[in-house]
Amino acid sequence: MDIDSILPIVTSYFEGMTSEQWNLSKAGKPDVATITLLGEKLLEIVYLETQSTLKEHVSTDGPVSPKSVICSLGNTLPQIFAQALDVPDEVKLVSSEKLTRLIAKEIAECVNSVLSMSVDSGKETIPRITPPKRLQCLIQQAGQMIKGLMRDLKRECAPCESRKKVSQSSSSSRKTISEDRESLLSETSKTVQEIIKDEVSQFTKSSSDEISVSAYEQLESGSTLEMKKVADDVAEVIVDEIMMQNQVDLETAQSSPSLKKVCGRIKTCAAKQFAQASIGHLVERLNIKYFDSPDNPAFDQVLSRQSMQSVMSDVDALLPTVVGEIEQGQNVSQWIDVILSGETVELTNELKNIIINHIERMRPKTSSGPKRLSIMVLPPHAIISADILAMVWCFLGVMRWWLHTQAETLTSRVITHTLEKAVSEGSIDGASLPSDESQGSGSESEVTTSESTEEYSEEQEDGRKSLIRDNCYEAGFEDL
């Protein structure tokens, strides 16, 4: 493992933390944005080591074994994390050994997936996307290792403020429903939009912090109309449910068929928001890497904004939101099903081409004349293409993990908090909702984890590896 290549990845993870996120990670209760970013960084490491192993591999050697990758990695990974945190690396942690084994297994399987492909020698090969449960176990063990290393830290951060809970309504409190349906629809739609934005921002705030103001505004404006359409549909179902019953037991309302029907719309909308923010973050990273924006005087800010608009327009067309009646919270967009399945070669290439087109639009044009120009020299096309492919691969791995582990609970929270707010504002009559402890908080991810992380059996079932440790599927790692 090349320390010089991996250390900047790990260092950037810690440097991007706020004081609040630092304290939560030290306590073993990182927020969802921190967990998501950790997953992204772990996939960057996996991809980098996969490419390194492929370069050194001789075709006559046969498949790569996890044991050989472990020998190559040695104890480097925990040493890199310790160096990034500036703590002694002599501390032996069980979690670091488990993380190394899991990383090695994933690298070996990625390498072998490439070796098994029958492709022309001149074409790029794409490793299979990391399964969400494998990524969750990587996140879990990395989190345990980080907590163990942080015990020796002298740096202390101010205690963070916990997320404020919405006040509960008394089950005996009864209020009448407003007869003004249009007013209730409007207010409920606004509430749904606010809650979706708040929930998705919990996952994307680390990415959003690195996006320029102009790029962030473009992301916001591009998604507002689509979100409003979804919010209007959700609001209509909720208001109809309220008006029909006149009095609503909120816990019962959450499981009503009419509300379940809109869960697919919410899930798709949230997934689209997450994808757009992640891709916007990816493009901004490339701008900084290749054009040193906005410090480089040769960087064209106007062209950058126009190009970002083109990127978001292309992404919007590639990841459409299907409008229509949704049955029982099923996924409604084909691209979501594609990512969930892991069969993403075509989608990977389409996203890669969209981003390559952005780089080409931003490439400095040669000109002649008496004026002195600042010149930006870009790497060869093959290097840029490989960089973009790595970023897209990591994005799709994180996106698949997010859809499997986070999307359903986010959807549930949107419905819950919308009803909860309606009760707290006196719009409807209802019983108290379950607390955030039972629903899950958007700011912290709390689960009980298992000591075992060897989650895959060797047997095949329906073309996929059967899963042994389902608890690794949960998000977060509270009991570290």
From TrEMBL:
Identify this protein by name.
Answer: Uncharacterized protein
Compositionally biased residues, Basic and acidic residues: 462-472
Q: Where is the composition biased (Low complexity)?
A: 435-451
Which keywords label this protein? Membrane, Transmembrane, Transmembrane helix
Top-level taxon of the source organism: Eukaryota
> Segment Disordered: which positions?
161-185, 426-480
Which segments show compositional bias classed as Acidic residues?
A: 452-461
Where exactly are the transmembrane stretches of this chain?
A: 382-403
